[in-house]
Amino acid sequence: MTVFVAVAEEESFAAAARRLRMSPPAVTRAIASLEERLGVQLLTRTTRSVRPTDAGSRYLEDARRILLEADEADEAAAGINATPRGHLALTAPVLFGKIYVMPIVIAYQMAFEETSVSALFIDRVVNLVEEGLDVGIRIGVLPDSSLRAIRVGQVRRVVCASPAYLETHGTPRIPADLARHSVIAATSVSPGTEWTFARGKQRIGVRLTPRILVNTNDGALEAAKSGFGLTRLLSYQVASELAAGTLDTVLRDYEEASLPVHVIHREGRHGSAKVRSFVDLAVERLRADAALR
Questions:
Q1: Please, what's the b/e burial string for 251-285 (b: 16 or more CB within 10 A of its CB; e: otherwise)?
Q2: Does the pTM exceed 0.85?
Q3: Measured between alpha carbons, how far is 26 from 5 in angstroms, rounded to an integer?
Q4: How far apart are CA 194 and CA 214, in angstroms?
Q5: pLDDT confidence bin for 241, thresholds 50/70/90
Q6: Distance (Å) of CA 233 to CA 184, 188, 220, 249
Q7: Between vectors from CA 252 to CA 254 and to CA 210, what angle results, nearest 5°?
Q8: 219 and 275, same domain (yes or no)
C-alpha cells in the first residue's frame, strides 16, 4: 500500500522509488504483485505519466486511511508523549500562509527536528483527504464534515485605499458612491464584479466595473498602496498597512459580518503526535494575534 500510494501521488514509478529509497524495479514488482493479488488494474501507465484507474482511485483513498490509522496506532502504542516525527502536509490561503503560517512552520521545524513539512498555499478550498493533507487553515463558514475544526479568530472584508487617493478623489460615504471611483477587484476575495455590503439586516449589492481585475490578493494590495484606487480585501491582508497608515478603510458602517478562521485536521481514533503538536502550536499562535480578533 505504501508503494502504491507513493506511485499514485508522484505519478511516476521512478519518482516513487526516489521518495521511498527503493530501486525502480522493486517498485514495479511491488505494484505488479499488488495488482495480481487484487485481480484488478490499479494504475494506467503511459510513456509520460502514471495515473490511477477508477478502481485505483478508490483503493488510493482507502490505502491512505489505513496507513494513517497504522501510523496513529504506532504512536498510540509509543505513548501520548511520543516525539513528533515524519512528514506533515498542510494547506492555507496564499497570503495567510505567507504572513501567519510560515512563521509557525519554522517554529515547528526548529522544535521537532525529526519532522518535515510540505505546505500548499492556494486560494481555493482543498479536500484534505483527497489530497493527502493533514492540517488546513480555513477562512469562512465550514460545511459539515468529519474533520475536526478549532476556531482561532475572525476576519472581515474591508474596502480600503491609500490616503493620497482619498485626498484626491474623496471618500465614499455609501456603497453606491463606489461607482464614481477607480476600483481594483481581487477575484479571490470577491468573485465576480458585485460587492455586497450590510446595514443592519439589509443587504446591499453594488455592481462595479473595475479598472483593474486581478486574481491575486497581493496584486490588488500593491495597486491600492500605489494610490490607483479602492480595493476590497480581508482585514488580515491589510493589517500591517492599516497600522502603518499606508492604507485607510472606508465604508466601515457597511461591512458584512466577520468570517471565522479555523484550524482543521483529520481526527483519527488516536491523535498523531506530529499533527497534534502542530495544531497546538498553530492554535496558540493564531489566537494570540491581534489582527485575528
A1: beebbeeebbbbbbbbbbebbbbbbbbbbebbbeb
A2: no
A3: 15
A4: 15
A5: very high
A6: 10, 9, 8, 10
A7: 75
A8: no
